[in-house]
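Quick check before the chapter quiz. The format below is the same one you will see on the exam, so make sure you can read both the input and the output lines.
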Amino acid sequence: MNLTTVQNALKIILNNTENFGVEEIDFLESEGRVLKENIIADRDFPPFNRVSMDGIAIDIEAFNKGQASFKIEGIQAAGSPQLTLKDSNNCMEAMTGAVLPKNTNAVIQYELLTIENGVATLNVEDLKHFQNIHKKGLDRKQEAILISKNTQITSAEIGVLATVGKFTVKVAKLPKVMVISTGNELVEVNETPEEHQIRRSNVYTLVSILKQLGISAKTAHILDDKEVLKTKIDGFLNDYDVLIFSGAVSKGKFDFIPEVLNDLGVEKLFHRVKQRPGKPFWFGKKGEKTIFAFPGNPVSTFVSCLKYFTPWFKKSVGVNFENKETAILAENFSFKPSLTYFLQVKTNIENGKKYAITVSGKGSGDLANLVDADAFLELPDNRTNFTKGEVFPLINYR
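Here is the expected output.
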């Protein structure tokens, strides 16, 4: 059976993304979501000439004529309506964030003043027009786009949404995802396994990766029974947008997933990828439903989800999905089969450059080794020897 290259597998996956639609949610609930509307300035930013230092506001012309002492007419507080300086030879105390009083055009901070008996004396030799004043509209003009559609919302965007009064915001809907493990050897996390059993771990690794993407996935476990698998999976195909399997896609006698998916009318787009770990990876579609069936070995599941599902999801919701991270191989490395190899590495920054140090594991079943590493270095499939100092793509998971 011909193997699909990693590049072709990713291309097929990215050509089969889905639009899950748009929903409107409370802006405080939108962090991490993908914006689906342009956020427009409802007025100038700032909306008035804003005082940027606590001090006094004056008409600079009086200072330019030689005046250094100014009688204080009043106080312009932040949040108060604009006051008017009645006498250009006087001044107005003005607080940070306040609107600049009318007939004034410079602010001198308290640290440069001496105030006695209601008179402020300037201890400076020169002033600039509009000193310590944040001019109206300097940041953005009314109707300007403050946040563009397809931006992933962070705390910075939350503040902007609040300041323009967007208490609800349109975001990309998230897919309904079911993560499914199979196998008679698996027991729940809170159970004590027999000697021939292990606890379910892969599904929770996948759930955690999806959670970092903002997706709350459901989980299920199905025993290695073809008819039970068919019944359960048929129901999941009706109820969920995405099914992610861990296990039962290789050549074992109980690896029923490809056969069951075929029986349920799921179109196989590829099965088996020219990579290690994760060679038995299966991908297919049924209408608008997308199925990722990863191999059951923990490292295979982990790297395949990062390499394939993450960019698929990001492209589906409209954000940048290209991973341009690279690292320098810190030591010579050899790998004999002609497969793309995802090398587990620990990264280190030296003189502004990122180096990848090999973390030796015991194969794709060595789940504990993932804790010692923090990334995968993607080594190409057209060679077997890789030289210290070469640069390769990096998949970070920390």
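If your answer matched, good. The CA atoms of residues 18 and 224 lie 30 Å apart.
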